[in-house]
Structures are given as C-alpha cells and as structure tokens.
Design brief:
2 copies of one chain form a homodimer.
Chain A lengths: L8 H14 L39 H9 L3 E7 L12 E8 L12 E4 L6 H6 L2 H10 L2 E5 L13 H4 L3 H4 L4 H18 L7 E6 L1 H12 L6 E5 L14 H13 L1 H19 L3 H8 L9 H17 L16 H11 L6 H13 L19 H8 L21 H12 L7 H6 L4 H6 L5 E6 L17 E6 L17 H29 L2
Parallel strand pairs in A: 3-4, 3-5, 5-6, 6-7, 7-8
Antiparallel strand pairs in A: 1-2, 2-4
Helix pairs in contact in A: 9-10, 9-12, 10-11, 10-12, 10-13, 10-14, 13-14
C-alpha cells in the first residue's frame, strides 16, 4: 500500500522523471483476442525487450551518482571505426569505456582482463549493476573493462545522439557484428598499449550483452579465453524456439505463485477492452489506474500492464532490488498477494491496479502514473529489433495469461518500414551466428562458454539450457531470474546463487590456468 | 629455345593477347640494393600476388572454351546484399555461381554440398582448374557449387566493372568478410530452395580461396562441416612470419635445382642496373630481352623477371601444365638447365633471357615481349592488398636471390593512398581472423580443417605447416607447389600426390560420416 507521506518537491519531481523514463512501453506482442482486425495496430510489432529506457538512466539521478561511487574506474574514450567491414569513408566515433587496473596483476604476471560486453544502454549503469565482475576481479588479479556499445550512452557516432539517430542511413551501423568488432579492436589496442598481449581476456555479459559475449567467444576465439553469457537468449530467433516461449514463461511464473492471480490477469484484458468501449469508459479507467493524463486508448493501458508483468518476471529476484524499479524480494509473490488479498468485492481492475502498484509504485510516492506517449521514438533497441534482432513473439491461447497473439512477420516488417524506413533481416542472425542445430555446430567447435539462465526469467526460453560439450556448459537455476548471477552479492543471496557463482568462478579459473599451461607448453616447444 | 615455325595469324594474335594479360606485374617488393634512394618508387609496395591477371582469362579464349566443356554445370545468379554488416541502402548485385547436381544424392539421402570458395578471378576459370572437386564429387554423391567472389568475373556491384571499380567508395565493399557473408547467405538460400538443410557442406579453396575456406570454417562453423584449405597463407600477415619468407623460398627453390642458376639470377640485378645506366643501355636491354617496345626503365625489366621467378616457384609442378602459362614439368629445373647450359661465353643477361623464355615463351611462338605498362590499374587484388590483405614482403640480404628490400609500411601506405585514396588496415585481418598464437587459439576451437601446402610453393611459408589438433591437420608435401592437390588428376601424378589426395578424401569422408552420426544421435535423443 502506498505510504502517503508527502515527499519533498525535489524528490517528487525526480521520481516523476524516473517514472516517465521507466514507464516506456517495452512490450506489445499482444492483441486482444476479440479484435483480430486491429492486428495492424502500430504496436503489434513490439517484442518484449531486455530493458526499457531504464537502460538510459538520467545521468544526474541520485541513484546513478551513488552507483558510480560504488566501483572505482577511469572513464576513457577510444576512436573507433564506424564500419569495420567496408572501407567507406566515414567519421570515427568515440567509444567510451570504463577501466580499472587497481587490482590488475600486470603484464609480467599476465594478469587477466575482465571484459564486459556492453549492451543497449549507458555503460556506467551496467557497470553499477554488474557487481559480480568487480567483486571477483581482485582474487584473479584482473583488470576490469566496461566498454560501451556503439549508439548508446555517450558512444555516439556523428557527434551527437540526434545526428546518430537521425535516419536509417546514420543508424545503419548499429549492429551486433559492428559492436563485436569494436570490442575486438579495443581489446587488441588495450593489450598493445599496456604490453598485455599475453594476458588472457575473459568476457562477461548479461541479456543482449550475454549474447554478445557468447558470439564474441565464437567469432573471435583468438581474442578471449572464455565467456560467461548470462541470460543470453541466442536461440530466440527465427523458428528455433516456439514464439510463445517468452509469454508462456511469464505466465507460468505468475501461475506458480498463485492460480487466482494468474486468472485475474488473464481475465482482465477483456474487462479492460469492454470497459473502454463504454461511455466515459476511458475516463473511468484513467481514474481506476490513477493515470496523470486521460487514457487515449485501452491499448496504451494494456501495454503498460503487459510491460509490468514481463519485467516483473525478469527481475523476480529473491531479495529487494532496484535494477529496473525499486522492488521487494520475490516481487511477483508480492504482486499476487496484493491482487489476491484485495478486499472482498474488489473488481478485477481494482485488483490489477493494486498488483501493478508493486511494480510501478513500490516506494508509494507516486501520485499519478504517466503512460509513455512515444513508444515509437527513435530508440536504439527498437532499431536493432527492426533490423537484426528479430525475435518472433506470440502469445498462446492455452498457456499464456496475455491476450492471444500470433506473430506476423509481414505486419512487423510494415511497421519497421514506417518507423525507420528499414527492412528487417529475420534470417541474418542465424546465418551469421548460427542457432539451428546448435549442439552439432558447437560440439566440436567452440569451448569455454558458460550459458547461465534462471528459469523464472522469460528469456531463459531462448537460452542454451543443456551442456553442449565439456567446456560449453549450461548453468540452470530453478529460482533464478534475469542474469541474477552478474549482480553484486548481498547478505540475502540464497544458497543456490552462492553455489552458482562458485561454479562460475571455478570454471573461469580453469580457463585461465589452462591458458597459462598451454602458453607455457608452446613456449617450451 | 624458341621454335621458329610461324604460327597462324589468329593464333599469334591470341598469344599476344595472352602475353599482354599474363605479363602484368605481380611482384615488386624489390629495390636494387645500391639505390636505396629509389625506395619511394611507385612500385615498391607490390607484394607478390597469388595470381596475375591470369585470374581474368579472356572469356573467348580457346583454352577457356575447352575447359568450360570439361566439367558440366549450370550458371546461375543470386541477388546478394552489397553490405551484410550495415543497413545502408545499397543496390544488390548479382553473384554468379556455377552449380552441378548431376551426381548429387539429393536431400533425402542428405547428399553433401561441395562448395568452392571463389577467389580473386573469374569463377569459370577456377572451376576449370579445380579438377579435384569435380573428380571426387561422384563418389560422395555431392552437389558441386562454385560461387564467384564479389567484384570479380561477372559478379559486379553497381551494374558493371567500370562502375564497381570507379573509386574507393564503390570498391569499399570488396573485402574478405563480405565475401564470406556472401557464401554463408548463398549456402543457406541454396539449402532452403533445395530442401537441403540437412545436407553437410564441405568447403574447398586454394590460395586466397583457401584462406577464405579456412576462415569460413572458423567464422561459420554452423554452415559447413569442414574445409580443405590448400596453399592458404593465413599467417602471412603483420609480424606472424618473417617478411623475408616468400622470397627466401623462391630463392631456395632455385638454389635447390642449381647453385649456379641461383647465382646467375642473384648477380643479374646489378648487371641490369649498370647496363641501364650506360648510353643506349635501355636500348641494348630491349634487344637482349626481345621487348616489343623500348624499355623505359630497368625497373620494368626487373619486375618482369621477378614476376617470372615467383610464379615459376608457385607453379613448379612435376608435370607440364597450363595453369598460368604453358610450362613443362619441373619448370624451374628447365629454366636453370637453360641458364646453366647456355653456350660458354654467354653473358649473364643472355643466360637470364634463355631462362625466363621458358616461362614467357615455352611454346616458342612469341616474337617479342610486351611488358605490362599499367601495373597500377584498378585491379581487385591490388585493392584488397591495399586495404585488408596487407602482407609484408622483404627480400633478405643473405638467403634471397632478389635485390635486398626492407618492407616499409609507411611508403606502402602512401602508394595505396595515391592509387586508391584508401588507408590500409594492416592489423585488421589478424584482429578479425586471428593468426598470432594460432595453436592456442585453435587447439580447443575449430575442427575439420585441412591445411595443405607444398614446400616448393613460396606461399607455404605463410601456411599452417603443423597439425593444430586431431582434426585441424597440416598436410605438407616436400615436392608440392601452389595448391597442386586441387588440380585434376593426370597420368603423371607422382605417388606422394596420389597419397595426399587419398588422405584428403579420407578426412572429408570422416567429417561427413561424423556429421551423419551426430545428427542421428541428436535425432534419436
């Protein structure tokens, strides 16, 4: 229940800014089951995202400042080629990277380099939220490097975000392969400058960054000795896993906590739709959900709810966290407790509101909620989703608590053309990185990759959940959520998490000591 | 000795065309040791090439027609993206490929696909000169595909060769990574169209094509089950092998046949230089070497000779061949026999002329020799050498029979800028494909690659000459020359060559049957 203590104006306006930023619509693979004709809706193409605009937290936010102090590093910039794969005359851009050599054993002792593959957001935010790397670096004598992904944070081509995001031409170099090449070039330059050529590199990454880490290990095996790819859905492409996977997992994660909660949500969509069709229905919904502005369509509301449920499943951590929003531990349990525990006679929508308030207003300080009014703004991940990162998403009739929706590539393509004037390439990722029949491909190829996944995380459905070989290992935790293993340790970490991290450390130690031994063997030859 | 029988006018003019085409200057890493000041010479950047303009034989030549009849295939075209790694709006181009399903066991029986990685030239010419693939396809029930490399032969972006080669902007997509992506996309599309998704692909390639085959296997392990990379100098980059390697091997190959021959060549460069400084010296040289036009500088002559020696070492096959020029078996032996066997009292230059006549005029039908007068023409390989394929080449003081020359990147770079307005990236190939410390990188990574090399071939110095793992195998033949194993069998094939090919067939059979077994195991899971 929201506390009513009035916060200071400063804190209040700050919170409103954060809500505005964080409430951006990430996910809308859902259409109401009773309105198939609206399938051309402008939002039907939105697949769930890894991150909302959380990935770009305000630079001056209180939270960000605090986190920047948490780990010590230097901020540097590296002049990077815009297109590694052609010789077009294009301007270089400054790639930001955070670096700490505080605990590095140095080149003589071949101290390792821990390299986090920056993903779709401000790298300082990822650095602040990837405590695992910082915490284990000292025991390895490792240097820590957090490079920013091109077109995010401060790493903008063409001089500014506005110029970089101007149109399809300026955005055209925002691709995963270019980002991997950035990393490879940066690693080689760092090594050269620090005389660290013989120092083994270990890659880390979570979510899209985990995909990058795994792909980096596959495509540039000479650059790194291994990769910890946490919650990396590298199989969420084309027809590799069923498109219903994501929403099925979100739904099951709710059902697991409470069948009645699951049912409330499942029933709510039609209620919202029919409510919206009444006279003054939108106004009524605006009141029920305490929205700041009058609701323009029920779709906006459905998106806002869908988004909350999906993210809740991702950050369903066993302890309180602030990764996406300030949340209690086991947040879905809390959401369902609220929904189920509403006073007898509460309507479905009142229950829903009580539930999602846990997500959008756990601090209790929000007076009204601002729905994102610009879900189609030029956003980096939207571009990536409209070009390479085409992850088909459906909502199944039987398992899902979301409105039934069948993925439709053709309408997805139309909307990408409308938004960006770009044509998606749905088969490219599987061509360049593989994915089909991954076991056969990787069994004798590739080594030293940890694919870690928590089964509560809806992205786990697109992850590698079985060992591929002796050195391509799947670590699956039943109670884990989205890349929980990469987070800083807490006093509340459950045993399975401690154990998981211990295994990861052991495997990484193995990669590094193997590397030293092989180098020695070759040196002695 | 050239026979004096007068050939018909048709044949003569044809031969002159061929000589014009074939005499193009491939190699000029050499400067006269006594003129260091001339190091800014416009030709100092020319590293030896795999092929001269041989790679573009006249389409209507008699030879070509004959060869096209030799192996049956269909010619098709595939609409290919110009830039796979960005979403720039660029026109597609038609990639030519030759295909034969004559012996294919078909999709049901999962007949293999033999895929030759087209290199820097007309694909029909490579198909005609890669008899091994055609000869073994029937026993494997394999489909045969020869795709052409972008920017060569008929596979021209922007509608025509002139447009494609107009400037650095139009040429900028002529890179190895783009070519590999072409291959990957083409394979997936072929498989889809032929319902051949489950058919294993085996890659073949010689020389630069061998590099592509090896890199393809490394970068796209999910696309092919193995690669035969013949004479692929993937280590000829940066500082991996000493830059003297190439010319040292050419020199040793001559020395091995005859020390006096080696010495004659080694002494000849100064003689040419001092001869050229005399009054009427260039005229005298023109006569001695029976040049069609008066020699403009001794450098042109030196280039012409250097080129002959380098190519002779590459095609030093044990039987007569027409790969680059019509030549006898063991051509270097013949050259040296001529040089050493010249009448007593013959001058050094007379001996040299007798020797190189074996290379440039074995048929004896050439009346005068035309030196290439446009070594800086916009040529695909020159572009590649000026961008990614930066292979440092020096000529050593002690071992080499060529003028001493120290590789100088800075002057190389200047000339690339002059010729193409492009800046070479000498560290890129080793960044994207690796090369340093290849054993450590590949030992636990990669599988099913045959690196075959003949030690007479000067490119073998940049090849992988030792087994890397159980499945990354080096096949080294003492008497082999440039990708001899890929050539059609002949009645004169020596035992070691028969044996080498038998091993290759056995290894390829192993890859394919392993693939079938693994697929079966997964299918039964």
């Amino acid at each position: 229940m929201a506390t009513k203590t009035k916060p200071s104006i400063l804190v209040l306006s700050l919170l409103i800014i954060i809500i505005n930023i964080f409430s951006s619509r990430p996910s809308l693979a859902s259409e109401p089951s009773n309105s198939p004709s609206s399938s051309s809706s402008s939002s039907s193409r939105w697949a769930p995202r890894f991150l909302g605009r959380f990935s770009q937290p305000p630079n001056h936010s209180h939270r960000h400042q605090q986190q920047q102090q948490k780990y010590r590093y230097e901020t540097r910039y590296f002049s990077q080629r815009l297109d590694h794969f052609s010789f077009s005359e294009l301007p270089n851009f400054p790639q930001r990277y955070l670096i700490s050599t505080e605990h590095w054993a140095g080149p003589q002792r071949r101290g390792p380099i821990f390299f986090y593959c920056g993903n779709e957001g401000d790298i300082a935010w990822f650095a602040a939220n990837t405590g695992f790397v910082w915490e284990i670096a000292p025991r390895f004598g490792a240097m820590v490097v957090f490079p920013e992904h091109r077109y995010y944070g401060e790493s903008m081509p063409y001089g500014s975000r506005d110029e970089a995001y101007k149109n399809a031409t300026t955005l055209s170099y925002l691709t995963a392969e270019q980002a991997l090449a950035d990393f490879a070039v940066l690693i080689r330059e760092l090594k050269r400058n620090l005389s660290a050529e013989a120092c083994p590199v270990v890659l880390f990454g979570g979510s899209y960054g985990g995909m990058l880490a795994a792909w980096m290990r596959l495509k540039y095996p000479h650059v790194a000795v291994g990769a910890l790819a946490s919650s990396a859905p590298i199989l969420q492409f084309e027809d590799i896993v069923p498109p219903e996977t994501f929403y099925d997992i979100v739904s099951n994660t709710f059902k697991r906590e409470s069948t009645s909660c699951f049912n409330t949500i499942k029933e709510s969509w039609d209620v919202i739709t029919s409510e919206g069709q009444k006279n003054d229905g939108l106004l009524q919904l605006t009141k029920t959900f305490r929205l700041c502005g009058t609701l323009k369509s029920t779709e906006d509301l459905r998106n806002w709810l869908d988004s909350a449920y999906s993210y809740l499943a991702m950050v369903n951590y066993p302890y309180s966290s602030e990764f996406m929003m300030p949340l209690p531990g086991h947040p879905i349990r809390e959401v369902c407790r609220k929904m189920d525990g509403s006073p007898t006679g509460s309507s479905i929508l009142e229950r829903i509101f009580e539930g999602v308030s846990i997500y959008y207003n756990y601090s209790g300080s929000v007076d009204c909620f601002q729905l994102d009014d610009d879900p189609h703004g030029l956003d980096g991940w939207n571009w990536q989703a409209c070009t390479e990162m085409v992850m088909p998403m459906s909502s199944s009739r039987d398992v899902s608590m979301f409105p039934t929706y069948d993925y439709n590539f053709s309408s997805f393509q139309d909307e990408c053309w409308k938004d960006f004037r770009v044509i998606p390439r749905p088969r490219w990722i599987t061509t360049v990185f593989g994915g089909h029949d991954i076991k056969t491909a990787l069994k004798k190829f590739g080594s030293n990759i940890i694919f870690s996944n928590g089964l509560l995380d809806p992205w786990s459905g697109g992850g590698v959940l079985q060992n591929v070989s002796e050195t391509i290992v799947a670590l699956v935790t039943k109670e884990g959520a989205h890349h929980i293993d990469l987070r800083a340790s807490t006093s509340e970490d459950p045993d399975w998490l401690l154990e998981q991290r211990a295994i990861e450390i052991k495997l990484i130690e193995g990669w590094i000591s193997n590397y030293y031994q092989e180098e020695k063997a070759i040196f002695n030859m």
